[in-house]
Design a protein that fits this description.
Blueprint: E1 7-11, E2 16-23, E3 29-36, E4 40-45, E5 52-59, E6 64-68, E7 71-73, H1 80-92, E8 95-106, E9 115-125, E10 137-142, H2 144-152, H3 159-172
Parallel strand pairs: 4-9
Antiparallel strand pairs: 1-2, 2-3, 4-7, 5-6, 5-10, 8-9
């Protein structure tokens, strides 16, 4: 299905919105508005004792403090692994001795082209955080079982965090 040239209807700091016409299987053109995003990373930081480093992060879009994995947006020209290392250190203070890509997934492909790179960070060394101005983030260290319990109880409602925790539990976690 072909799409026409896109018209930029909004340009923000981190993303833009484009309107295009998609030629459907019915032969008609259908308008589509798409959020163009540079991509992001989510990191599952596992400490040597098995605890998970989660964050309590205030999100203005939902006016709530959500429980999340550390995450962030790719800078222009930045490789996803570099973004993961940078965001992990900035938000949690931890530096990863080992960092491995576990999966990539689309966040909301009906309207958004953002690709999320999901990393496992281990051999963590503590250090200072470097929060950006306006960020309201608190580190929360929990056992693996507590992380799953938080998800089960609907206390974790952030999509990338749910996807990351469950992906690791089902496909990667040593049994």
């Amino acid at each position: 299905m072909a799409a026409s040239k896109a018209e930029v209807v909004f340009q923000g700091i981190l993303f833009r919105v484009e309107r295009l016409m998609q030629l459907g299987s019915d032969g008609a053109e259908h308008p589509r508005e798409i959020v163009r995003h540079p991509g992001g990373v989510a990191i599952l930081p596992l400490l040597g004792d098995g605890r998970v480093c989660l964050l309590e992060n205030y999100r203005a879009a939902v006016d709530e403090r959500l429980i999340e994995l550390p995450a962030g947006t790719l800078e222009p020209g930045e490789e996803p692994a570099a973004t993961a290392r940078r965001e992990l250190a900035e938000e949690t203070g931890y530096r990863a001795g080992r960092l491995g890509l576990l999966a990539t997934f689309c966040m909301s492909p009906g309207i958004l082209d953002e690709k999320m790179y999901f990393y496992l960070a281990t051999e963590l060394e503590p250090g200072p955080t470097a929060l950006e101005a306006g960020e309201d983030i608190r580190v929360r260290l929990v056992s693996w079982e507590e992380a799953l319990d938080l998800a089960r109880a609907n206390r974790i409602r952030d999509a990338k965090t749910l996807a990351g925790l469950l992906y690791y539990e089902v496909f990667c976690r040593p049994k």
